[in-house]
Specification:
Blueprint lengths: L1 H15 L1 H20 L23 E7 L5 E6 L2 E5 L5 E3 L2 H13 L4 E4 L17 E6 L4 E10 L6 E4 L5 E4 L3 H5 L22 E7 L6 E6 L2 E6 L2 E5 L1 H12 L5 E3 L16 E6 L3 E4 L3 E2 L5 E3 L7 E4 L5 H4 L14
Antiparallel strand pairs: 1-2, 1-6, 2-3, 3-4, 5-9, 6-7, 7-8, 8-9, 10-11, 10-15, 11-12, 12-13, 14-19, 15-16, 17-18, 18-19
Length: about 325
């Protein structure tokens, strides 16, 4: 009876408003067709919309444990960034950029390609023979967010085999060997030749001396930068100076020397140099203390118990700066 009434009602509406009924009917058909075709994979299971290994947000991660069994490094977040606790118990400054890259890789891991969920498969063929690095994230409360074992990388690809806590082997798209440094102890240590300083510390002077073709200073007076060389002084492009300053601040070591017993020779006089940055509250100095047998510079950054090694060619753009670059963007008076 109710169906008959509904049928009569629809029939009357169709007679009175045929165009409206056709319009909404076409919209309904279009929606159904869109759902069936699914051109944007909204209803299709893909890697991106699969379940996450780590169901958390970046800011909720307090601790990361990374490394091979017995050689794990513990990364801890603090107000200034990150610290790295080595297996020896020594706590050192962490490389925030590398650690944040690791976090983003972890948050993108998806349970999409399951290869095995039993013990019948040989784990060795996936690089999971027992000596593989672990990767565990912990929250502010100290609870584990998740733990995986990192196996071998996929040949000719960026993927990695991993083993989860349920003994399941997965293939993920991310290259975890790269973002974890393959379990190297020093991978997450800070390598910056100049320690990060707050943006509120305004730089007032940059001085380069030694290896450069000519010693020079860049001094800030008010809103303007001045280039000073022996016996001359000109107005410098603020944009060029700021770019130059960023290059200096980004100087990063190629290697880390944790053991002070490693030998190095004195720096020859004709290869020595000094980079100095003066801010409103501090002074930062970059100057080598020695050279390795292969000709790389060795640095001892203030506040670090380990030494930093940098290839000379990484310094060329700083020490061999063409001073004409500072005067190529002057505004016409």
């Amino acid at each position: 009876m109710e169906f008959s009434k509904l049928k009569d009602l629809l029939h009357r509406i169709y007679k009175e408003y045929p165009r409206i009924i056709l319009f909404f009917g076409n919209i309904l058909l279009a929606i159904l067709l869109l759902i069936a075709k699914d051109p944007w994979d909204w209803f299709k299971k893909t890697y991106q919309n699969s379940e996450s290994f780590y169901k958390t947000k970046s800011e909720e991660i307090q601790t990361i444990i990374s490394g091979r069994k017995g050689q794990e490094s513990i990364l801890n977040r603090n107000l200034d960034g990150w610290t790295v606790q080595l297996p020896s118990g020594l706590v050192l400054p962490g490389d925030s950029a590398r650690i944040e890259e690791l976090i983003q890789a972890c948050l993108h891991l998806r349970k999409f390609t399951l290869l095995s969920e039993s013990n019948s498969v040989s784990k060795e063929e996936f690089g999971l023979g027992g000596d593989e690095p672990i990767l565990e994230l912990k929250s502010v409360s100290g609870n584990s967010i998740g733990k995986i074992l990192i196996g071998a990388p996929v040949r000719k690809g960026s993927g990695t085999y991993i083993l989860d806590e349920k003994n399941q082997i997965w293939l993920v798209k991310e290259n975890l060997k790269s973002v974890t440094g393959g379990g190297k102890l020093d991978f997450f240590l800070s390598r910056s030749l100049i320690p990060p300083f707050p943006s509120r510390e305004k730089v007032s002077k940059i001085a380069i001396s030694g290896l450069s073709s000519i010693d020079f200073n860049l001094s800030k007076q008010g809103e303007n930068w001045t280039l000073e060389t022996s016996g001359s002084q000109i107005l410098a492009s603020s944009e060029e100076v700021e770019n130059y300053l960023e290059e200096i601040k980004k100087l990063s070591a190629d290697e880390v020397l944790l053991e002070k017993s490693e030998e190095y020779s004195p720096v020859p006089k004709d290869r020595n140099f000094k980079i100095e940055i003066v801010t409103s509250t501090d002074r930062y100095l970059v100057s080598p203390i020695g050279m390795t047998k292969l000709g790389s510079y060795v640095f001892q950054r203030e506040g670090l118990s380990y030494r930093l090694v940098l290839d000379p060619w990484n310094l060329e753009r700083i020490l061999q700066k063409d001073l004409a670059d500072f005067s190529t963007r002057f505004l016409s008076p």
